[in-house]
Design brief:
Radius of gyration: 18 Å
Structural class: mainly alpha
Oligomer: single chain
Largest sheet: none
Distance between the termini: 13 Å
Number of helices: 10
Number of domains: 1
Length: about 230
Amino acid sequence: MTNVEKTIRETVLPLLELRVSAYNLLRWAFLQEPSKEFLQSLSESVLQEFPFQDENTEISQGVQDIINQLQQPDFLSEETYDRLHWDYTRMFIGPYELPAPPWESAYLNEERLLFQKETLAVRRAYLKYSLIAKEYGHEADDHLGLELDFMYQLSLLAIQKIHEEDYGGIVEILLDQQDFLDEHLLKWVPDFCQKTEQSAQTKFYQGMAKILHGYLMIDRQAVAELISYEY
């Protein structure tokens, strides 16, 4: 193993694995109403291991918000589950006016319409990697959960490229992730997170909004650092 390969496996690979873990948790938190399986999979240890808490107070505060709710004796009760389910539905699905719509075009399109140029731009980014959004044609491609899933899928692909020793492929993926953060997620998610924090009726979603905002900010730095390595 060359020095470059050793550096990549000891430095780049662990950071990519952290990013996979973070995006996996975040995509499920915002992709759909919380399932009982997802809530049961959360634990203090899972949240305490969420990356970059020491570097970002927003992440650490969000983690603590959720841990505080996890520690409630009724966290997995039907009543709590229904409350979380309604909080998600009320904010992100309807039937009433949404306080925090989870689509990019709801923030960047002048008329706040879905399936517009913003949605098509996101779709083109997916198609470069032969990825088709879940519920294609029914759910807009620029839904937050789908955009986070895209970042998750590309992070997995970057790890695969390391094992294939395709270092040029890694850089291309990282550049595309950097572009997706700059041109999509970071243009609207800060506003979304602020609206979610203000309108959420549970500490769970207030905490998730803090984690999401803090993580995207620091992940942009992490991607730039990964791109700067000598591959």
